[in-house]
Amino acid sequence: MVTDQNSQAIVTFEDVHLTYDGVREVLRGTDFTLRPGDFRFLTGPSGAGKTSLLKLIYAAHRPTTGRVEVFGNDLLDMPSEEMPKLRRRIGVVFQEFRLLDHLTAFENVALPMRVLGVNPNSYRDDVIELLSWVGLAHRIDAPPTVLSGGEKQRVALARALVSKPDLILADEPTGNVDPVMGEKIMRLLLELNRLGTAIIVATHDLGLVRGLKQNILRLKDGKVTLHGPIPDETPAREPEGAQ
């Protein structure tokens, strides 16, 4: 078992319960802490609640009971009008990409800045640099309809980074790409982490996790436990099933 070092937490879960429709309990007294510069793989069986946990962090859900604190804000008591400001500090890489087909790769990456009303001249170079960083400088004017799954995932990653967030949440970022591209995406996230961004990557691909030797947040039976890198003999995939 690994213990977090003392520093200011950016995410804190205390006795968090999350119940859907008053019946299905996904989280049952969950506790964990994420600190600046942390990189954590969030693992657990399919259906264990990994996506739900990420949604609690970026305030797409609120806990049924318990405390979720993000950047010092208790989300259960936080006014709805304050949520956009908090979300601007969080970059999210969705499992299903969520790109807009009528926009180019450049326009999809730039969309968060456009929504914020930022002057295009102030972020154009950043968008181009990000697309180059993820290996898509040659696809800058391409719409998602002509991009491969791996290219779409990298556009989604660049979009999550464009606002220079303090925290990145990636939900199965390698689930729709081949192993070579999956490893490249993970290396990009590790490099970003080395530059100071805190990162949580939800995945059930233990083969990928095993090779990168990072600490693990293990979600099982509605609770999270913190572990060190998984042993080499661990099976490559999480078992199926909700718990």
TrEMBL record:
Subcellular location: Cell inner membrane; Cell membrane
CDD domains: ABC_MJ0796_LolCDE_FtsE (cd03255)
MF terms (GO), sorted A to Z: ATP binding
Annotated keywords: ATP-binding, Cell cycle, Cell division, Cell membrane, Membrane, Nucleotide-binding, Transport
UniProt topology in membrane: Peripheral membrane protein
GO terms (BP aspect): cell division
Domain ABC transporter: 11-243
Subunit structure: Homodimer. Forms a membrane-associated complex with FtsX.
Protein family membership: Belongs to the ABC transporter superfamily.
Role of this protein: Part of the ABC transporter FtsEX involved in cellular division. Important for assembly or stability of the septal ring.
Protein name: Cell division ATP-binding protein FtsE
Organism: Parvularcula lutaonensis
Native organism taxonomy: Bacteria, Pseudomonadati, Pseudomonadota, Alphaproteobacteria, Parvularculales
